Sequence to fold (62 residues):
Amino acid sequence: MTPSALPDNWQELLAGYVLGDLDADEQRLVQQWIDHDPAVARELAALEETWHALPQTLPLHP
Fold:
């Protein structure tokens, strides 16, 4: 899949995928990108790594 085949908001959709904030159709679409484009899969891995690191780096406020 070439970058031109992705919509302009593909990074937003990928972030929504990581956050579990997409509807079923969007999830399927993003999963197709991940399955067919190594660059998208790498971007997903980076977003997931960042997301999982956040709770460890942000201070807790009661």
Observations:
- The first helix runs from residue 10 to 19.
- The chain has a mean pLDDT of 87.
